[in-house]
Specification:
With about 375 residues, the protein is of the alpha/beta class. The protein is built from 14 helices and 15 strands. Strand 5, helix 6 and strand 6 form a beta-alpha-beta unit. The protein binds iron/sulfur cluster. Iron/sulfur cluster (SF4) binds next to loops.
Length: about 375
């Protein structure tokens, strides 16, 4: 089983915190769709077996018109064998989700919407330079619920100036809307973003870890009480609504990334496409795939497994580490973990290592302490 990721590299405007690959000019959208279809055809041999999940990410996939989406689906279904009940997610921004657009999506093979709400409050949306307002955030979800039951929304916490009360209000609104899945990320300041330069110039307050941590703790408490399971550090789902796409990714299943800047993984190698729309389109016009390849060492694969699994509710299986990497790795893991178990950051449950509740917010740092570093 494998997944297909399709990157749609266009956005209406640049959100201040974003460092993903996108262009705010949609002039090349038709040529991009042709190139995506061409890449789908050229790489069809790379997927072993059936496709279980398809994910349209970006950028802003909800900028795709009906005919463009149809062309891409044709490219997928003509070249790949898709299981009978795939999960097909499309990321959408609230300002694109008119009832007409939602109906169009519901009539297509898309069966899961991931809506980039980020906040239900105007102040936060303005600070982040989101293209939608608070009214559109609400209305888009209400309209989407008429046609989709598998809906996820994204929310951002740790925004400068956002009080814990406003964060709680965001969560309450999300719960009132009865969406079955929430992905939530701390606002991070990436270099070369408008947010970074605004903070450096003192125009807005810096992003601080303290409030982010408090809001993360609030979120776990509020959402777990409401019946959500925190099945991965940033992901909360009601039973039956965990993202199949993300879960496959955390379990190291192969996926094919189509489009500029998209990454692929086949179990042993990581590949990534050029992050430039013009170069990507030109290469595909010549029948070339503008890709770079990195062979992952055993250390790299072990480190990735530890990093991704520790963030999930399933934790790291010590048997799996031994099966995949050998006894030496298992012993290394147990040796390094002993210290972290002793100080209460890790727990040991039925042959698996989990971060404790105390260590949860620090999951990535804890995982890093279990990494193996390649010897020169
Ligand atoms: S809509 Fe998404 S991809 Fe586009 S700029 Fe905003 S955060 Fe980045």
């Amino acid at each position: 089983m494998a997944g297909i990721y399709i990157h749609i590299p266009f956005c209406k405007q640049a959100c201040h915190y974003c460092d993903f690959h996108f262009s705010t000019s949609v002039k090349k959208k038709p040529a991009m769709v042709e190139a995506l279809c061409h890449e789908l055809e050229l790489r069809k041999e790379e997927i072993p077996g059936e496709v279980e999940t398809i994910y349209f990410g970006g950028g802003t996939p909800s900028l795709l018109e009906k005919e463009e989406l149809e062309k891409i689906f044709k490219g997928i279904y003509e070249n790949y064998s898709v299981v009978e009940d795939p999960e097909i997610t499309l990321e959408a921004n609230p300002d694109d989700l008119s009832e007409e657009k939602i109906k169009m999506l519901a009539d297509s093979p898309v069966n899961r919407l991931s809506i980039g709400v980020q906040s239900f409050f105007e102040e936060d949306l303005k600070l982040m330079n989101r293209a939608h307002n608070e009214k559109e955030a609400l209305l888009s979800i209400q309209a989407a619920k008429k046609y989709f039951n598998n809906i996820s929304i994204d929310l951002i916490y740790g925004i400068p100036g956002m009080s814990n009360d406003r964060w709680k209000e965001n969560l309450r609104i999300a719960l009132d809307l009865e969406v079955p899945h929430i992905s939530s990320y701390a606002l991070t300041v990436e270099p070369r973003t408008a947010l970074n330069s605004m903070i450096e110039k003192g125009k807005i307050a810096p992003v601080e870890e303290g409030p982010a941590r408090e809001q993360y703790e609030i979120m776990i408490e509020v959402l777990e009480k409401a019946g959500f399971e925190n099945y991965e550090f940033s992901n909360f789902g009601k039973p039956g609504y965990f993202s199949r796409n993300n879960t496959a990714y955390w379990f190291g299943k192969p996926y094919l990334g189509i489009g500029p800047s998209a990454h692929s993984f086949d179990g042993l190698r990581r590949k990534w496409n050029v992050s430039n729309n013009t170069l990507y389109i030109k290469a595909l016009e010549k029948g070339e795939i503008p890709v770079e390849i990195e062979e992952l060492s055993a250390e790299d694969r072990y480190n990735e497994l530890v990093m991704t699994r520790l963030r999930t509710k399933w934790g790291v299986s010590v048997d799996e580490v031994e099966r995949s990497f050998g006894k030496d790795y298992k012993e290394y893991l147990l040796r390094e973990a002993a210290r972290l178990i002793k100080n209460g950051m890790l727990e040991w449950k039925e042959g698996r290592l989990h971060v404790s509740r105390k260590g949860k917010f620090l999951s990535d740092g804890i995982a890093a302490e279990l990494f193996r570093v390649e010897e020169e």
